[in-house]
Amino acid sequence: MAVIRPAIAVAAKFTASPIIPISPSKISTVAHSDATRTRTDGTSVLTPISSNTAAELPLLDVDFCGECMPLDQSDVVDRWKHVFTLFRPHASDLGNLRQRAEEFFPVIDPILEKYDIPDDFRYVPLAESGLRPKAVSRAGAAGYWQLMPGTARELGLKVTSRIDERFNVHKATEAACRYLRKLYDQLGSWSLVAAAYNAGPSYLKNQLRRDAHRDYYRMTLPRETRYYLYRVLLYKEVLSRPNDYSSFLSPAPRTAFQPWPMAELRRAA
């Protein structure tokens, strides 16, 4: 089958600088030394620096369809922090995303149940299309589930110049669930199903023949697929228990000496 591509690609790894706690007794010293700058006329001006530091991402127990994310592996933690770091500047849109999800989930949940697909796959369309019904990727994937034309036709959907059932939420979800069920019957692991949905079943099967294990988190995969499940799980976490991540997702204070890393984010987009 044709590869199903997501609308949003994951970018290069971003490594944040370590956060070093500063005791209250040192805050005034830091502010008065580092914040002092000299004007052109020779006089000094003091620019206050906020004593707040960015919050660390809480590492909570996370699972996908009962398969736990192995947070005892440092590379897994790095990827998990990476997707949250990229999402953080867009956290202000979480309310709108939640509203779209509240309208979307009641439509697709009964279809997932019909095909015995775990609830966690309700978050796949968020990673694929941001729940935008008319989303179309540069590769030609379309709709909530970002189905490629060839894949959609093989799954029984009409895709012509006049009719494109990938934009019909009921029919597209039925088709996606048939596809997911078929992948699970072949692979026997829901995390591998998610990887195959992104990279394509042929690629994943070939990779499984070369790998000594069947663990998504340890497999050698393309960059986009390597981060794919993390992105799905990010949406699950921020929508199902937002309060647990509120301190990390709250905007960090902007000062002259703590600018938003816009250049880095552009390179990572």
From TrEMBL:
<comment type="similarity">
    <text>Belongs to the transglycosylase Slt family.</text>
</comment>
<dbReference type="Pfam" id="PF01464">
    <property type="entry name" value="SLT"/>
</dbReference>
<feature type="domain" description="Transglycosylase SLT">
    <location>
        <begin position="121"/>
        <end position="217"/>
    </location>
</feature>
<dbReference type="InterPro" id="IPR023346">
    <property type="entry name" value="Lysozyme-like_dom_sf"/>
</dbReference>
<dbReference type="InterPro" id="IPR008258">
    <property type="entry name" value="Transglycosylase_SLT_dom_1"/>
</dbReference>
<protein>
    <submittedName>
        <fullName>Lytic transglycosylase domain-containing protein</fullName>
    </submittedName>
</protein>
